[in-house]
């Protein structure tokens, strides 16, 4: 039986960049939709002065006010950004950690291995927000293998969808396309996948969203790219295995591609 999840506390890690503003905007939209509360975290350099901290607080409060969150007092901590974000996510018992898309131009930005480490070590599922959050998510995709973390990512994605939204669960039966179709293997995978979806669906709360699922056979990169092109999801849910690699059974070498060039907002769960 799969455990039902619930997003009640959203933590936004901000770095005063426009990308982080998008993350806060999405978090505010999700909080309004789900009734979750929000905390906003900024990690200050240990060498920063009191004036720097005062300036950062003023900027954060302005951004909170802009998103209708003027009642929130930002959390400002000093230290290494990764360690502080992970510590606060655990200490505040966040159900969802939201970051903006990484950018390499900022000295404190969430770039490269820093972003990966947060994703892989975060105690809470992580939402990488990349697009303006003018409206709730309407189209989502969950890349499913048969791992617990991929299932958990799909469950959390479902929690972020509202009435009328669509979530498509996708599984890839991987094989080299030059070998031609494997009808016997595909039939077995379809039977197993149908049962997995039935088990997951029985545990999902009623949100007004609609669930569909599809199985593709071929090379995983081609299948996943084709599915994304077809559905044009606003949210892509992925599982992250223990020390690491993003859902290797489905994504494999595409992990870096999704981190560097996300096609939409990405939700990752361990």
TrEMBL record:
<feature type="domain" description="UspA">
    <location>
        <begin position="137"/>
        <end position="270"/>
    </location>
</feature>
<dbReference type="GO" id="GO:0005737">
    <property type="term" value="C:cytoplasm"/>
</dbReference>
<comment type="subunit">
    <text>Homodimer.</text>
</comment>
<comment type="similarity">
    <text>Belongs to the universal stress protein A family.</text>
</comment>
<dbReference type="InterPro" id="IPR014729">
    <property type="entry name" value="Rossmann-like_a/b/a_fold"/>
</dbReference>
<keyword id="KW-0963">Cytoplasm</keyword>
<protein>
    <submittedName>
        <fullName>Universal stress protein</fullName>
    </submittedName>
</protein>
<dbReference type="InterPro" id="IPR006016">
    <property type="entry name" value="UspA"/>
</dbReference>
<dbReference type="Pfam" id="PF00582">
    <property type="entry name" value="Usp"/>
</dbReference>
<feature type="domain" description="UspA">
    <location>
        <begin position="8"/>
        <end position="128"/>
    </location>
</feature>
<dbReference type="InterPro" id="IPR006015">
    <property type="entry name" value="Universal_stress_UspA"/>
</dbReference>
